[in-house]
Amino acid sequence: MSDFSNITLVSVTGLNDARGAAYSLALSSRQMPQASVLLISPARPADLPPHIRHRVIAPLSYHEYSWFIMFALWKLIDTEFALIVQEDGWILDIRNWSDDFLNYDYLGAPIALGRVDMPEGIMWMQNFTWCEHLNRPDRVVRPVLNGGFSLRSRRMLRALIDHPQIRVEIPPPEVVEVEPIRMEWFHKPLNEDVQLSAALRPQLEAVGLKFAPLDLCLQFAAEDIGPLHVGRNINRLFGLHGWWRRLVSIDPPTVRYGVTRQLAEHIGGERVIIAMLQARGYRIEFDPAPR
Q1: CA distance 221 to 226
Q2: Is the pLDDT of residue 290 over 70?
Q3: Which of 206, 221, 243 is where one domain is finished?
Q4: What spatial distance separates the first Cα and last Cα of the chain, rounded to whole Å?
């Protein structure tokens, strides 16, 4: 097994309150003690453990975070790989690490959104409907690989710097004219993981960058639970990510859901995740039901 000295555990947040990111780094670094540990945020948490380095950045909006990851993070990473964690994504079990992860430039959990290239054109599909097109000879399926808990090589961090001909493209949004007027994109192209792992993947692969195969990504982490996970042992996951689960303490490790217990247990497969976390000694908290 690797000694992990070639990995930087890093969390980036544009929020002044970076305690959740610090919890994720601290809990993950307990399992990967040889790795460098770096928090990038506008303000340093008062109780940041001394082994976690801190770099100050200007506050970031939700979408500015994506631009930072794609265009600026490489400047702060001096190891061969970066393992990105967030307050909603962290290492579950180092025993499930595989050195095969280091053979690729990008690993992340397959999510419900995916791109399917077919003879009639490119289709973006949600709710894991892209799975129906796997293994068809006239289809190329590129699931979005979650970036919030992801392993990336330094080559991937610098990909859009070293290959300026590969350019992020944002298609026109659908403008919803019912007040409040808003813009919507079906496939969320403003997100960095959508860009890197699906929208720009053909161009990135053409210059030699390697994305982990689907089976290895399923071993690496989970976010959405879908048909791909049927029959898989959830206890074999290396990491976990999901915007509705946030780490709010590490002694003991405590996960707070941003939804009620009733709603959480109706999210596909979430009962299995909750049971797995509880078996690992996590405390689980839920938002109270609205009054």
Answers
A1: 13
A2: no
A3: 243
A4: 51
Give residues with Cβ within 8 angstroms of 288, minimum separation 6. Answer: 260
Is the four-CA dihedral 216, 220, 223, 227 of positive or negative sign? positive
Residues 127-165: pLDDT tens digits?
999 999 999 999 999 999 999 999 999 999 999 999 999
In the chain, the number of structural domains is 2
CA dihedral 187, 189, 195, 200 (to 10 degrees): 80
| Angstrom distances, CA of residue 77 to CA of 151, 156, 256 | 13, 12, 30
Question: Which residue segment(s) compose the domain that 32 sits in?
Answer: 7-243
For residues 251 and 173, state if they share a domain. Answer: no
Q: What is the pLDDT of residues 53-86, one digit of tens each?
A: 999 999 999 999 999 999 999 999 999 999 999 9
Q: Mark whether 192 and 256 lie in a shared domain.
A: no
